[in-house]
Design a protein that fits this description.
Layout: H1 10-36, E1 43-47, E2 65-70, E3 73-81, E4 87-89, E5 92-96, E6 100-106, E7 112-116, E8 122-125, E9 129-136, E10 141-146, E11 159-165
Parallel strand pairs: 3-6, 5-11
Antiparallel strand pairs: 1-9, 2-3, 3-4, 6-9, 7-8, 7-10, 10-11
The protein binds copper (II) ion.
Length: 166
């Protein structure tokens, strides 16, 4: 009985090595993004009724805006709507520098986007669903939030602003 050594063609072996290196590279890129750069994947936080979310007095989005939940920690309930005039409610919020803000955003009509400029917050806003993402503002300044999903003729003017005060 002779022992047979498995023969792998040189090209095949090289491509197997390249594939393994690529897998390690991709896993590293995901790890750096998630743990090093703090990139979060927005989660569907809860379901709501889009027909009543803006009007039901028990719905936080009937009175959108900031709630301070702890010193320096805020919940921001933001309504993105196309009807009647393509805007976010509230149009402007203001927090002191160093604040951590959790955005809870929903829509009573069509799909919108929510991107906070100069942060990594950028997600879809879907009627019936609440999208949530948390941002810590370490630099004072103005951070506009803009719609990133085409939602109708007023899409281009759909924006709001966060003022981070020193
Ligand atoms: Cu839009």
């Amino acid at each position: 009985m002779s022992t047979q050594k498995m023969h792998i063609d040189r090209y095949e072996r090289n491509w197997m090595i390249v594939s393994a290196v690529l897998l390690v590279l991709f896993a590293s890129a995901v790890s750096v993004a998630a743990f090093g750069m703090g990139i979060q994947v927005p989660a569907p936080e809860q379901r709501v009724n889009p027909n009543t979310v803006a009007t039901d007095p028990n719905s936080p989005w009937s009175n959108p805006g900031l709630r301070e939940v702890a010193p320096g920690k805020y919940d921001a309930y933001i309504l993105a709507h196309a009807i009647p005039n393509w805007e976010y409610l509230p149009k402007e919020i203001s927090v002191p520098v160093g604040s951590t803000v959790s955005f809870y955003v929903t829509s009573p009509d069509v799909q919108h986007g929510f991107k906070v400029q100069n942060t990594n917050a950028n997600f879809m806003v879907i009627p019936g669903q609440v999208s949530k993402l948390t941002v810590t503002f370490d630099e004072p300044g103005t951070y506009n939030y803009i719609c990133t999903e085409y939602c109708g003729s007023g899409h281009g003017v759909m924006y709001g602003a966060i003022t981070v005060t020193p």
